[in-house]
Amino acid sequence: MSGLLPMMILLPLLGGIFLLCWIAPQGDHKQSRFVAFAIAAMTLALGLMMTYDVVTQLATYNQQGALADPVTWPVLAELRYMPSWLAVDLPGTGRMQLALGVEGIGAAMAVLTTIVVMLVMWMAEGSVRQRFGQYAGWILLAEAGLLTVFLSMDLMLFYIGFELTLIPLLFLISGWGGEGSTRVAKRFVLYTLAGGMPMLVGLIGLVIKYSGQGGPTLLMEELSRRALVALPTETLAGQTWIFALLVFGLGIKMALLPLHTWLPETYRAAHPTTTALMAAVVVKLGLFDFFRLLLPMLPLACREYGPAVLGTLGAIAIVYGALAALAQTDLRLLLAYSSLSHVGFITLGIFSLSEEGLAGGALQMFNHGITTAAMFLLAGIIIDRRGTASIPEMGHGLSSVYPKFGVLMLFFLFAGAGMPGLNNFIGELLALAAMMVRNPLLAVIGSSGVLLGAWYSLKLARELLFGPVEKSSAKGGHGGDLTAKEWVPLGLVAGMCLWIGCYPQPAMSLVDLDARELAKIYADLDRQVAVPVANQVPANVLEPSTLVDRRSR
Amino acid sequence: MLAQGLMQQMVPILPAVALAGAGCCLLAAGIAGMTAPGEDSGSRRASGWAWASLLMIGLIWLGWMLAFKGSGDVATTLFRSDAVSRSGTAVTLLAGALISALSIGLTPKRFGYEFHAGLLFLLAGSAFVASAADLTTLYLGLEMVSIPTVMLLSIGRRDDAGREATLKYFTLSAFSSAIFLLGASYLYGVAGTTSLSGIAEAMAKEDQALGRIALALVFGGLAFRITAVPFHFYAPDVFAGSSLPVAAMLATVPKVAGFLAIIRLLGGSTLESRLSGEAELLLFALALVTMTLGNCLALAQDVWRRLLAYSSVAHSGYLLLGVVAALHLGSTPQSILVYLAAYVVMTMGVFAGLAAIQGRSNEELRIDQVTSLAQGNRGLAIAMTICLLSLIGIPLTAGFWAKFGIFFSAVSSGSPLILTGAVVMAINAAIAAIYYLRIIGNLLMSPSKGQGSVATIPWSAAAWTCVACALVTVTWFIVPGWM
User: Fold this and answer.
1) Any chain A CB within 8 A of the CB of B417?
2) Considering only CB atoms, which chain A residues are within 8 Å of B392?
3) Residue A358 predicted with pLDDT over 60
4) How many CB atoms lie within 10 A of CB A539?
């Protein structure tokens, strides 16, 4: 048992409270900056340490060929934190153990959180002009909530983190946003609460459903184990209602298509650094929990409704988001819709329910996180410089006025459009290829989104970066090209995109084992039911080793 | 021997007797203090009475905890001491202590000691209900709650709105008592006994129409106390027409007493699943209508107290769902008692905060009139926000465990109907969040530029009560076992 995981949560939590209560009221910018950076950096360091541990540990698992107990997840016993005092006496259920733990996908998301928070904190220091101390405090509290979700191994801590992330976000959006941000913040919180409350009923349903084998438990590993044991006697109807409640809650958080209406306005009205955090990490809360809760615990419902309903919604989201992005003139709205479209790829990947798709979806969660955070931060900078968010009003030819900005913007646009050699390519390709096996129609619809994605990205590049330098664009706005403080961190992110794009093995190895274990459940199910779709295409045609040689270990 | 036997018989009602005795002491002291009834005794002396009542409630609690906490269940013909009576009495005492604390600066200057004596009497009534084992004692307790309430209403506020509220409450309370009594007489007719356990047995044995009518009438009478929907109309008017401490009392004590009475009628320490069927359906319908209508009407309110009145209606609906679930399971009513405890603390916190803002004024404050509290008194703003978040049911507050408990028993009941009820409740909780967040948004809004300086709000007793409630709320989240 190691104290690394609780440290990762407590550090930003206590740091955030300290900032909000002691440092920020003094109004000393330098002091707040020091504390905020120090805590974000320490958390990042802990996150990297954790990732290193996870990667090395997963490598040993892989060398051994299989896990000792194939039913449990690849949760790293070395990092699990489950002291006996971390339990809760619930009214009516007795003492229930809580736990923190980490496996591959959780580690990827946790380290993404720490990276994005560090990045956001760094950029916010320049762009949040008032009450930076408070802003940083709320960001750290949000980080603590997010990490609680990614690192919890029981339903209670998970739900607490899931709901508590809302409160910092409420203050971040309404306190530092632009016009109408209070209204938008309230709407975001209401949407999420409207999903969160039914989700709580669903989670309780999960606990009670699997309480037959040795009393109720909140531990996710135990619940997943019981779900597999009970699988032969399970009925679809018994899983459907829990599935529906959970999907409703998670769907709102991840902006699943008909529930997405909070997203564009929130991204537009919030401060760009806040938006970067939300688009990069908060939306992933919903997606992540498909891996943690739905796929292992409700396999029948996931198999029945996942590809058919959620996959379809994902495919529609890809096209709808891309088309809507094409029509936008506000840079922030364009990015918001493009983010919606990208999340669709992740959904497609997950609900292909195969190893490649799950791994691609998980990888894409990380990739989309860093790319979209960088895009929103860049957008924030240029909106600040030009004093407007409207693309036509910003003027043409900005790349000659701000050359460094132009290079980075173009780079991330290409990354977002899924250019080979950059990070998004690999995830999207795996997701689409896997969906081709499960449901070719959806894959075809999804692929058209790649084209549309390239279209709006290049259109944006043409309108904003190239073309004749107009007089208005040459002068207007204040400040020059990116300062070193701005381009160095974004350049590092760009480097990371390139690295993952060219050499995806390390990132893949992080999510691979999880994906394989989850896919096994569905492969077994498919075999039992012998659905023709699964047998039409021989499995080895799309063997991912032909795409990426990630099995050479 | 005789004395010991008597003591044994007295155990279940000792806290109630002590409370009533304390009320008598207050009355005696007030008369001995040469304050003529109705004389303006000055605010200092008025707060003195509040301190005295707080102290007595505290002493009774302490003595009760020390002397009888460990004692086992005692059952006599009229009263019984079991888990329900212990928790019910504790919740009653908690509510009483909080009301006394919040009224320290707000006790009416005239009739100060009568006010607090009345408060102690009605707490005694609620404690009686908690340990009632017979229809007669149950009714006695319920009346001991409602009669002093009328007194408090008329003492607390002496203007037209106050008179209207008093009259409304009095007539409706008499009406509901009559309905309750009618139902009780039918129950007696069915069972041939007034003992609650005897009635439960008779009801379970014979499936007869008369029993159903009787139960419907009895629940109708109780629905008034808990402001369940067909009898909720008085709540907003009475809340708005009373002084704040009395409104806080109205939002909590009658509800506690009403739910304790329902629990007692349905079996006591474990709810009788044999009674399910019609009673379950009736309560289920009542629960859904109450929570939905309460929340929808609360959405439309602009005045603080009216909004809180409708929100208390909605919370009754949640509690009723808890009753239905526990009834279906035949389980202990623990989730209901936990919800009541959390509800008392968080509601009282909001009322205390409002009292701190409003002081002695009885003006009907609109929600948008209370803004930028964070600048006026930061601690109070945080405490009120915590209490409001608890009313929504967000983690880190006791309100979360309260809702969790009800969801848990509803889901584990395994009945699709009750499960649907839980989902409806979840949606309702989200609707409720709309208006609670509106309040929070107004509280924490920064002052508009033209407004100039913000009035600071002093640290009154009510403000401290609000902070105490917020602390209790958070502590209960961390250690739910203390609830």
Assistant:
1) no
2) 193
3) yes
4) 12
